[in-house]
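Please fill in the sequence for the structure shown.

STRUCTURE ENCODING:
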């Protein structure tokens, strides 16, 4: 799909029609536990999506966007877990093979989830960006389609279908808090809302320990930075040079926040304890951003995107 990245809305609408038979419409739930007097807070439960993550939307849209002959040859992806599971699931449903490159530091539970959906896994390096480079090189060498976790307009359009659902589910909201990793989730949601509800503020939320795109946006160029371990493994790692999400996030993110590991832990415990729904660290980043946002206004109507549920059991035990 070739398109001006700032004119994504029609492609998001097409993605919604294309992927609808394959994905769930996820619920929106009010969160009194996160509200202040006069506020309303809602959570968009993408953690209840197939494969436990929003990533299934972009994966299906990308694979369905490929011509049948290309798709039949198989696809290659790079992932710390959620994108890999999504690509594996979509490939299995559409009858093609998938190879997923992952960093050696990826959670074993997520790697098992990728293999369990029929994909071959190859672990390379200690950072998501290393795995991405290895996956792209393999795809080019073997003439296979590469399915980026974020640096692909078809993937971004698939993620943007969340915003179409959100618009139908809530009559009014002022601010959306979104975890920021490679920027595909924020780019898709923000591009759609900019076309239909331009008054809605988009807040990017990143863990302090791995905030490459956050610091890159501040610097005005994509940086190569070292990340340290974070509970938000789904957003961790570097950003591919030339990523289309960089310009999209710079244009559509009104503000960008950093949250500490302690705040992420608090958000995990709150959502699991009060909403009785499982989330992973990346989902907690959006909640932590909302709850600690110094720019939060009285009477604000907020939405936090719970982007996934795939937390490593050992990590969950430690936090709880």
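FILLED IN BY: designer on duty
SEQUENCE:
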């Amino acid at each position: 799909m070739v398109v001006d990245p700032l004119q994504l809305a029609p492609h998001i609408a097409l993605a919604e029609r294309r992927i609808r038979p394959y994905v769930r419409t996820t619920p929106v739930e009010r969160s009194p536990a996160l509200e202040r007097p006069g506020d309303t807070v809602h959570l968009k439960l993408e953690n209840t999506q197939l494969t436990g993550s929003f990533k299934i939307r972009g994966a299906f849209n990308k694979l369905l966007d490929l011509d049948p002959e290309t798709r039949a040859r198989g696809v290659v992806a790079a992932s710390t877990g959620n994108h890999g599971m999504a690509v594996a699931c979509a490939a299995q449903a559409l009858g093609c093979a998938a190879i997923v490159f992952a960093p050696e530091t990826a959670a074993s539970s997520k790697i098992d989830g990728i293999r369990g959906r029929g994909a071959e896994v190859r672990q390379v390096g200690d950072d998501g960006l290393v795995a991405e480079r290895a996956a792209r090189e393999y795809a080019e060498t073997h003439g296979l389609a590469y399915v980026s976790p974020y640096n692909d307009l078809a993937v971004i359009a698939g993620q943007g279908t969340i915003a179409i659902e959100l618009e139908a589910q809530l009559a009014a909201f002022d601010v959306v808090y979104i975890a920021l990793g490679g920027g595909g989730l924020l780019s898709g949601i923000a591009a759609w809302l900019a076309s239909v509800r331009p008054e809605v503020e988009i807040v990017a939320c990143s863990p302090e320990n791995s905030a490459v795109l956050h610091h890159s946006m501040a610097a005005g160029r994509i940086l190569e930075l070292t990340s340290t371990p974070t509970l938000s493994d789904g957003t961790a790692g570097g950003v591919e040079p030339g990523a289309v999400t960089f310009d999209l996030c710079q244009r559509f993110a009104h503000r960008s926040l950093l949250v500490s590991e302690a705040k992420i832990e608090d958000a995990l415990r709150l959502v699991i304890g009060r909403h009785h729904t499982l989330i992973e660290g990346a989902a907690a980043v959006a909640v932590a951003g909302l709850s600690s946002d110094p720019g939060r206004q009285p009477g604000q109507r907020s939405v936090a995107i719970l982007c996934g549920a795939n937390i490593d059991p050992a990590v969950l035990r430690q936090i709880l």
